Amino acid sequence: MTDRVRSFRHARARAGDAGRASRGRAPLPLDPSAALASAEPPFRETGFGAALREAAPLVPAFRSAPLGRRLNGVFALTPDELPLVGPTGVEGLWCAEAWVTHAGGVGRQLANMLLKTGDLLVEPERLDRRRFASWSDQKVRDTALGHHQGVCDAH
Ligand SMILES: Cc1cc2nc3c(=O)[nH]c(=O)nc-3n(C[C@H](O)[C@H](O)[C@H](O)COP(=O)(O)OP(=O)(O)OC[C@H]3O[C@@H](n4cnc5c(N)ncnc54)[C@H](O)[C@@H]3O)c2cc1C
Asked: 113 and 122 in contact (C-beta within 8 Å)?
């Protein structure tokens, strides 16, 4: 994938609006904390301005279209680029953390685990949230961040 295409990753139509996304820059890691109340930090002109400029020659409508909502959305990364699926350790609370790309399989896996059908797509341990339990926080963070560009290209 070229840097230019990566920078202006995709356009989407939604209710008459056009959406454009950029994934061409280095990740801006967030540390989980009680103070982190939202998965949407403020939009940063410095981080996204180049993508807006690069989109214009590729999609002529973007040259004159007014800008609507700007979103600085947080990506959830795991060290192996795979979802977290299964019980959380809290009675009755299960997790299904996944990208949209994985959503169909994750929904099916979770449903089959909950219903105990035995018809699982993968071994539950492969997606269990505890598979990184022996790792340090730093190793989880560094490894996950190392997959940032690959995840952006794949999904
Ligand atoms: C900018 C951006 C671009 C992305 N592009 C892609 C892509 O191209 N391909 C891809 O596969 N993935 C993409 N992703 C990742 C994908 O969007 C997420 O992995 C996916 O949406 C996660 O789904 P979810 O159902 O777990 O969580 P969410 O989609 O976040 O849904 C959680 C819902 O719960 C609601 N909620 C939260 N707290 C409460 C509460 N206390 N009470 C009631 N409701 C609550 C939220 O409002 C939200 O509607 C992108 C993510 C971002 C941020």
From this structure: no
Domain ranges of the chain: 3-64, 84-154
Q: What is the pTM of this model?
A: 0.83
Q: Tell me how far apart the alpha carbons of residues 146 and 106 are, in angstroms, rounded to a whole number.
A: 23
32-65 confidence digits (pLDDT tens): 788 888 888 888 877 677 777 788 888 888 888 8
Q: Of all atoms in ligand 1, which is nearest to the CA of residue 10?
A: 8
Contact at 8 Å (CB) between 3 and 24?
Answer: yes
Alpha helices in 16-131 (DSSP H): 45-58, 61-64, 103-115, 124-127
Nearest-CA residue for ligand 1 atom 1 is 73
Instruction: Tell me the per-residue pLDDT of 91-136, one tens digit each, with 9 for 90 and over.
Output: 999 999 999 999 999 999 999 999 999 999 999 999 999 999 999 9
Residue 98 C-alpha to ligand 1 middle, in angstroms? 9
Q: Tell me the two tokens of residue 135.
A: 């790792």
Give me the sign of the Cα torsion angle 100, 102, 105, 110.
Answer: negative
CA of 100 to the centre of ligand 1 (A): 8
